[in-house]
Write a structure and sequence with these properties.
Blueprint lengths: L17 H5 L7 E13 L5 E13 L3 E5 L6 H8 L7 E6 L2 E2 L5 H8 L2 E4 L11 H11 L4 H14 L15 H13 L5 E5 L7 H18 L2 E6 L2 H7 L2 E6 L2 E7 H6 L4 H6 L14 E9 L7 H10 L3 E10 L2 E11 L3 H10 L3 E4 L2
Parallel strand pairs: 3-8, 3-9, 6-7, 7-8
Antiparallel strand pairs: 1-2, 1-4, 4-5, 9-10, 11-13, 11-14, 12-13
Helix pairs in contact: 4-5, 4-6, 5-6, 6-7
């Protein structure tokens, strides 16, 4: 079951422009800044496991940043260190200008109110209604009942569930439960929204709906969003920037359009993979050439590449084009008699395209 997008008026203008993204490589202008963060766990047998290994990351204020990585890369540990649920072994973690590693317990409790959490499963309290679930963190924070009611009404409206305040979790669809989880995370007006695999339990249509909601929330409230995910489709749809986490380190990071423009980047290949070719291709004696395009000044246009391929007798057997950020990215698969493949690759390279024979 899919969910309608909320249609409320903006609560607060928020924007992510070129200036904000330009600060992605420095702490200045960042809502989240990690410097040389190390987290070491000591197992019962005395073995030490380095879950985070000198991790450095900056997330611009008001942006949506995706963090991708395989199981065991350190994603869960990173989330726990961002919220100071796990103390770091070494390094600095700053969120909304505060060093989370240097706060006293009372200060830390206050700082955590500036961070909202959305989980893979909404983790709602089954015995409480939608409105009561959203009000729960406000009650814990000591917010007066009348103020809680007003905030809950605003949050229900924001996530498109204004008519479901009296419903219990068992009466909601998976997407609706996740909307309640997002509303609950935003009730305390956080500066940062951390989303840990927020759509991996949802069907594709509901996933698109939830990601549209997250983007809408960012635009309306100006909140900074970090999405932990293993799904590249999530990054393509909603993120302004992305980082690849591997063995506790950030190995690639940057604005989406910069990442995909680097055709040698692993993230670029994963975000816009080479197209599959149909059964029966290539024919015996043919080679497959993978071509990567990015529509920027100085880069060859797709029509130019196709013209060169045609001149050399190459056929297009697969292709995909994506618009990510401000970049238009294309991936083509060509087939050509193997003896002509080096000439096609050289001709494409001469005009600035990236081409290689598929092994």
């Amino acid at each position: 079951m899919s969910d309608p997008n909320p249609g409320t008026e903006p609560i607060k203008a928020g924007a992510v422009g070129a200036d904000a993204l330009a600060d992605a490589g420095s702490a200045e202008g960042s809502m989240i800044s990690l410097r040389d963060v190390v987290k070491v766990y000591t197992l019962r047998d005395g073995t030490q496991v380095r879950a985070l290994d000198g991790l450095t990351l900056n997330v611009p204020a008001g942006s949506i940043h995706g963090i991708v990585g395989t199981s065991g890369a350190g994603k869960s540990t990173l989330i726990r260190c961002l919220t100071a649920l796990e103390p770091v072994t070494h390094g600095e973690v700053r969120v909304a200008g505060q060093d989370m590693t240097a706060l006293r317990p009372r200060e830390l409790r206050e700082a955590r109110r500036r961070i909202g959490m959305v989980f893979q499963h909404a983790n709602l309290l089954d015995s409480r209604t939608t409105a009561q679930n959203i009000a729960y963190p406000l009650a814990l924070a000591g917010v007066a009942k009348g103020e809680r009611h007003e905030t809950v009404a605003q949050m229900l409206d924001l996530v498109g569930l204004a008519d479901r305040g009296g419903s219990y979790p068992s009466q909601l669809s998976g997407g609706q439960k996740q909307r309640v989880g997002i509303a609950r995370a935003l009730a305390d007006q956080p500066a940062v929204l951390l989303c840990d695999e927020p759509t991996s339990a949802l069907d594709p249509e509901t996933t698109r709906s939830i990601l549209d909601l997250i983007k809408d929330v960012r635009d309306r409230l100006g909140v900074t969003v970090v999405i932990i995910t293993h799904e590249m489709s999530v990054v393509r749809q909603v993120c302004d920037s992305v980082s690849l986490l591997e063995a506790g380190r950030i190995v690639e990071s940057g604005p989406i359009e910069e990442v995909v423009s680097d055709v040698d980047s692993r993230l670029s290949h994963e975000l816009v993979p080479v197209p599959a070719i149909p059964d029966g291709s290539p024919a015996e004696g043919d080679a497959v050439i993978d071509v990567a395009l990015t529509a920027h000044p100085g880069q060859p246009a797709a029509a130019h590449v196709l013209a060169i391929a045609s001149e050399h007798g190459a056929d297009v057997v697969g292709g995909v084009f994506e618009t990510l950020g401000r970049a238009q990215v294309g991936r083509l698969a060509l087939t050509v008699p193997a003896e002509r493949a080096p000439g096609v690759v050289d001709a494409l390279a001469a005009v600035g395209a990236t081409a290689e024979v598929r092994s």
